[in-house]
Amino acid sequence: MAARTPESVLKQVFGYDRFRGFQRDVIEHVVAGGDALVLMPTGGGKSLCYQIPALLRPGVAVVESPLIALMQDQVAALEELGVRAALLNSTLSAGEAAAVERQMRAGELDLVYIAPERLLTERCQNLLAGCALALFAIDEAHCVSQWGHDFRPEYGQLSLLRERWPQVPRIALTATADAPTRGEIAEKLLAEPRVFVASFDRPNIRYRVVEKREPREQLLRFIRAEREGEAGIVYCLARATVEQVAAHLAAEGIAALPYHAGLPADERKRAQQRFKGEDGIVIVATIAFGMGIDKPDVRFVAHLDMPKSVEGYFQETGRAGRDGLPADAWMAYGLQDVVQQRRLIELSDADEAYKRLSTAKLDSMLALAEAADCRRVRLLGYFGEESQACGNCDNCLAPPRLWDATEAAQKLLSCIYRCQQAGGFGFAATHVIDVLRGKVTDKTTKFHHDKLSTFGIGADLSEADWRTLLRQLVAQHLVEVDHDKFNVLRRTEASRAVLRGERRIAMRHSVVPEKPARKRKAAATAAPALSAGQQPLFDRLRDWRAQVAAEHGVPAYVVFHDATLRAIAELKPQSLVALAGISGLGERKLARYGADLLRIVGSA
Ligand code: ADP
Ligand code: ZN
Question: Does ligand 1 lie within 6 Å of residue 525's CB atom?
Answer without folding.
Answer: no
